[in-house]
Amino acid sequence: MKVKKILILLLVPFFSDMLVACCDCEEPQVFKYTNTSLELQHLDNRGQSPVIATNDIALKEAYGISMTLRCEKTAYKAPSVSFFINRSYAFSCGCDPGVQYHPKDSITAIRIITIDNFDAQHLSGSDISAYFKLYSWNNFTGISDYLAKDAKIFYYEEPLNITLNALLMQPPALSGAYRFRVEMDLSDGRSFIKETSTIELR
Amino acid sequence: MKPIFIILVLGLCSTVSMAQKKPLRKQRIIFSHGVGYDFPLKTITANPFTDPLTDLNDKGISIQAFAISWFIKKNIGLEFLMQGIATNNRKGRNQLFNQRMENQWSNQYYYNSYNFYGGGMSRFMGAWGLSYKIEKRRFTYTPKFYIGSVSIDQSPTYNLYLKERNSNTVLTLDYSADKSAAGKFMMSPAFSVVYRFNSIVGVGLNTSFLWHPSNMVYTETLTNLVTNEVSTQQYKYDKTMKRFNIGLNVSVGFGRRNELVGQ
Fold this sequence. Notes:
Chain A is mainly β. Chain A is about 15% helix and about 40% strand.
């Protein structure tokens, strides 16, 4: 009788852990990623969707800048280890993805500066960010609205690049050669500053 | 299907031997199934883009799922009718819609058209009827009057992204129907002639004239995603729809042994 009681007492933690394991989601593996560099390309949006411009001439009404942020994995948070039994998905409806990449730093500001005189009000060095909108899947977002959103989280795959297509919504009155500078501030104090090559806007 | 076939065969076989000399029984309860053709007498239009979205003007094969007539007092009866109309023109309407969209927008915009048609019955009708039957030897003449409800397919919301050529401008174009009025009140005078092979089985010819209000509103919404400018336009279908249905059916009826036609 005593042996039975001891056996039951020994098995209680095992069964409790099994119960918790069955009713709980697996602890996700959380990685961190960081933005490492910025690349700029001209966009040609004459067609059905924007594509990278193949030459240095574009229609001013269908022009945009592609901003590609390179991302890299930096750190890994080990999942909590179960005492006896690994967490299973037996009762897991709507569990978070098992592998997640969270941002270590986020974008706090994007400024698009015209290097050449853009119009009468926006001479060389002026901020013309308000003339651009970020375009994705038939959805336009103002730069300030984009910054107000939560930073991108990647699930399962290694962090991919983040591409922002900024389309020029208010073209310059005059055709001509233009260059733009993009300044991107990050939450950790770093800034990416890049300039486009010269583009002939017609 | 099999029991109906057996009843039909038995009914037809017994016709010669039994029913030639003996008067037929008066039928108290009649079940019938049939097929027919349903078409509008006049089409109703409001807008070239919203017209193809609805089956309001469609014509097609009608399936009389079942009709039950119960003659409560002598020749006066009540009838319940369920009918489906397999309008086979959804694909055609879809093509017409896409063609009109292309003519309207394709010169200036890119867009991806998609199909809104699917298979199956698009329209159902359920009705109660008051009927009066006149039985003359093997023929039964029944004028009827139905009131009930008919469903109109107003199609799901149709929306398109229109990307302007040589420009960063994108528009959305939506057509949405007021779904609250999908079921329409209907009334319909009808007439049927049934030839009875025997006391139980008969075949009939039905005609009916159907009125129902169209009462539909489509809203067209054009939104400029860049400027967020929105323009809306409503297209109203408010005339009375007039349709005609002609069909054949097989009926199986039962009556009391002592109530005979001609007595």
